[in-house]
Amino acid sequence: METIPYDKRSGKIWFNGELVNWTNAKVHLLNHGLHYASCVFEGERIYEGEIFKLQDHTSRLFYSAKRMGIKMPYSEKEINDASNEIIRIQKIKNGYVRPVVWRGSEMMAISAQKNKIHVAIAAWEWGSYFDPKLKLEGIKLQTSSWRRPPPNSVPWDTKAAGLYMICTLSKHEAESKGYSDALMLDHQGNIAEATGANIFFKGKDGSLHTPIPDSFLDGITRKCVISIAKSKGVKIIERKIKPEEMSNFVGCFLTGTAAEITPVSQIDNYKFTVCNLIKNLSESYINLVRKKVAA
């Protein structure tokens, strides 16, 4: 399906406290965010006209900014209000919100102490991240040749732009070989995550195993799914997982704001079943985000 390029869409974008026409929301070529990845962002889902876990996302945006030495020029309340305002203006019922924060153009070198901090919030209608048919059958992953960096080398617990370049490289590599996404290992060779989602495995005893988020983002959806699973009496085991252990698991799925709960049918030569537990967790998650059950 053909989609409209993101710089050609219509409506408004919240840009530094003002509502500007979508096609006029521009920055100068020589900005620090573009040249030095001096940028943090969030990705939020809109369900039935409301942003799911808005405060959690906004709090993480501010945490990411602080870790990157960026002083936010607005309060969390102002960002929440602006996010809600833009989805009302855009009349979005089910879609996506992208707040982004970056350093401007006052200095163009490694140092950026004098650069203005810019903030923009855009929102658009958006469906499933993965093909809906593939989500039912389970997507296929390939282990990436790239790894998550050591935790003492990057601000790994932030949603910062520069951290995603190896994800793009990994996803392109996987897609070129017919896979939907890539599995990324950590710097020690343990299973970490997919390119934009956390990962869970189902053991033969019905327990769920998931990597410890000590070198990659501990996703908001990940936390939500763990809570749902525990409420159903499912045992959650957070631990280091070696790639060869995948032969011991019978199920696998990804979690993320974009991915929601996406079953995985295969990783390299390891195959998994889209079992009832995964379907049940997915149904419960959709009921939660659409407010059919209490949060």
Blueprint of the fold:
Blueprint: E1 12-15, E2 18-21, H1 32-36, E3 39-41, E4 44-47, E5 50-51, H2 54-67, H3 76-89, E6 95-103, E7 117-125, H4 132-137, E8 139-147, H5 165-175, E9 181-185, E10 191-194, E11 198-203, E12 208-210, H6 220-231, E13 236-238, E14 249-256, E15 260-267, E16 270-271, H7 276-289
Parallel strand pairs: 8-9, 8-15, 12-13
Antiparallel strand pairs: 1-2, 1-7, 3-6, 4-5, 4-6, 6-7, 9-10, 11-12, 11-14, 14-15, 15-16
Number of discrete helical segments: 7
Low-confidence stretches: none
Q: Radius of gyration in whole Å, from Cα?
A: 19 Å
User: Major beta sheet, specifics?
Assistant: 9 strands, mixed
CATH topology of the largest domain: D-amino Acid Aminotransferase, Chain A, domain 2
Gap from first CA to last CA: 34 Å
Binned strand content: 25-35%
Question: Could you explain how this protein is built, in words?
Answer:
This protein is α+β, with helices and mostly antiparallel strands. Helices cover 26% and strands 28% of the residues. The strands form 2 sheets. Strands 8, 9, 10, 11, 12, 13, 14, 15 and 16 form a 9-stranded mixed beta sheet that branches. The longest helix has 14 residues. The mean pLDDT is 95.
Question: Any key phrases for this structure?
Answer:
single chain; 295 residues; alpha+beta; D-amino Acid Aminotransferase, Chain A, domain 1; D-amino Acid Aminotransferase, Chain A, domain 2; 9-stranded mixed beta sheet
TL;DR?
With 295 residues, this protein is α+β, with helices and mostly antiparallel strands. Helices cover 26% and strands 28% of the residues. The protein is globular.
